[in-house]
Amino acid sequence: MVLWFAGTAVLAVWLVFHDPLFDYRLLLVGVLAPDLVDVWFGGSAVLHSVTGVAAVLVVVVLSTIGHRPLRKRLLAVPIGMFLHLIFDGAFSNTDAFWWPFSGASLGDTPLPVADRGPWNLLLELAGLALVWWEVRRFGLTDPERRRQFWRGGELVPC
Questions:
Q1: For residues 65 and 1, what is the distance between their CA atoms, to the nearest angstrom?
Q2: Residue at 71 is within a domain
Q3: Which of its termini does the chain have fewer beta carbons within 10 Å around, N or C?
Q4: Would residue 133 count as lying in a domain?
């Protein structure tokens, strides 16, 4: 599942912030990170818990004291991670979502993406439609706009 998370995260951040200088590349890293990291634990683990994602947010904030432009750029990662929890429905599994307070062990519960089965296909198709709309909305069919995105992460509507 890539397109579902990419499409929903970009749309949500654009609708909330309307900031063309937001680093959408780092948002995509953040929204994909929970599944890429937690798969190594064998199931829902640190990055499928609100505690783990909040810890990443605290690390970003504390490590960028006095470096406001860097902070603004790096905040895209934990924002993406929080959006992953929402769009993955991670909150529906209280053992994983509230780890370590739930008492569950890391990897005790399957990743939500592995637990959904065939619903993933429908979500991925919806994600494909969102990504297609975003490519058109932000003019990413134009090589120069695509280059601008890959260099700085900006998305400017046409």
A1: 34
A2: yes
A3: C
A4: yes
